[in-house]
Amino acid sequence: MSSEIESIERNQTWELTVIPKGIKPIGVKWVFKTKLNEDGTVEKFKARLVAKGYAQRHGIDYTEVFAPVARLDTIRVILAIAAQFSWEVFQLDVKSAFLHGELKEEVFVEQPEGFVKKGEEEKVYRLKKALYGLKQAPRAWYSRIEAYFIREEFDRCSSEHTLFTKSKGGKLLIVSLYVDDLIFTGNDRSMCDEFKNSMMLEFDMSDLGKMKHFLGVEVKQCVDGIFICQRRYAKDVLARFGMENSNAVKNPIVPGTKLRKDEGGVTVDETLFKQVVGSLMYLTVTRPDMMFGVSLISRFMARPTMAHWLAAKRILRYLKGTINLGIFYRKQESNPELMAFTDSDYAGDLDDRRSTSGFVFKLGAGAISWASKKQPVVALSTIEAEYIAAALCACQCVWLRRVLEKIEVEEKTATMIMCDNSSTIQLSKNPVFHGKSKHIDVKFHFLRDLVNNGVIKLNYCASENQTADIMTKPLKLEQFEKLREMLGVMDITKIS
Fold this sequence. Notes:
This protein has twelve helices and 21 strands. The chain is α+β, with helices and mostly antiparallel strands.
C-alpha cells in the first residue's frame, strides 16, 4: 500500500485541496491481488488504490471513455511472423499505467483509508492524472502512450490502432499494446534494446524479458518456432467448476448432436452456465478446436436447460483430456503465405434455420485467426449459405492483409481462400443472376469485387481437407483429429 501511494505521489497524480462548494468527491478503496507466474508460483502481492468510478455521471464527470486494445488475432500474427524469421519477442509491463494518463476534466477524490493527512482530514485530492477505476482512465492512458509513440516517430496501423511500427534503413521494430502490457519484436536486437531503454526513461516499467506469459497465454520460444497454450488457465477453469477429476473424452461434441431451445426441459442455474461459457470463450484464444462447441452452447445463455448443461460439461471433459494442447508456429524453409478456409453448415440451427459460417486463416503451419458464427439471415440455398460465409471470410482477409502490410510481410499475390462449393466459386467470379442467387443481399457481393480486383482468389478443395469444417459442425473423431492437426494444434510435451 505504501509503495502504491509512493508511486502516485512520485507521478504527481494529485494535489491536496479544499473541496469546492457543491462538489461531491468520489470515494476510493484498496484492492488486493496476488500475481502468479506462468508456473503458478507467487510473483508478488499487489495493492492498488481504485476510484469508485460507478459514482461518476456521464456528461459531468466524463465524456468519452473508449480506448482500443490489441486484437488477439494481431498478437498471433506477430508471433507467427516472429517464429518464421527467428525474431525474439519481448514483453514490458507499465507499472500503474493509468496513473500516467492526463485528465481533461476536474475530478476530486477522497483521501485513501490509512493515508489521511493529519490536521487536513477535511481536504480532498484533485486529480491531475487518471486513477484506476475512473471511467475515462483507459482513454487518458491510451492518449498518453499514443502521443509518446508519435513523438518517437512510430507509424500507427490504420486498421489496428494498438499496432505501432518503426522502420529505419531496413531495420524494423513492431510494438503491440494491450492496456499496460506491451510486446515488441523486430529484426534488429539493438533497436529493440534502444526502444526498451527509451520506454523505461519515459514510464515506470517492469522489464519482463522474453515473452513468456501474456494475458493468461503461456508462450514458449524455441529454436523451431513459438508455441502458445493456456495450460494454467485451463486447470483453473476445470477446478472452478469441479471438473478436475472428470473422465476425459476425445472430442468436444458427440457427432450428430443438434442443440435447440429446450422449452420443456429442466432449467439449470443461468449464472453458472454463463460463467462456464465465458471461461471457455477465453480458452478459444489458443484452442481453435473448441471454437464451434463454445459458439454452439453460447446461443442458449438466456434459458439454459439440462441438455445444454450436459453439452457444456462434455466440452470441459474434452478440455480435461487435452489440457496440454496449443498452437505451434513452426519455422518453415520458405516464406509463409496467408491462406484461408471457409465453410458453412446449411440451416444447422433447428430453431430459426439459420446457417453457421466458419473460417480459418493460416500463416505457415499454424492458425492465426478463426471464427464460428451464426449467419445474420436465413439462407435459401446452400450456395447462399456458402457465399455469405465466404464474404465474412473475405472481410477478415482484407483486414489481415493490411496488418501484414504494416509489419512489412505484404501479400504480393491474391490470398487463396479454399471453399468446397463449386457454385459459390463460380458466383464469386461471374455476375450470374438466376433463381438461386438473385435474392442474395447486395452487401455480400463485396466478395465478387475483391475477386475481380485480385485481392482474393477462391479455390476448390475437397470436403475431407476443408479445415473450416471444424468450425461449423460436430465431426467424427478421426476427421476431427485430422483437422485439428492441420490447424497447427499440438501437445506442448512433444516440443523440445
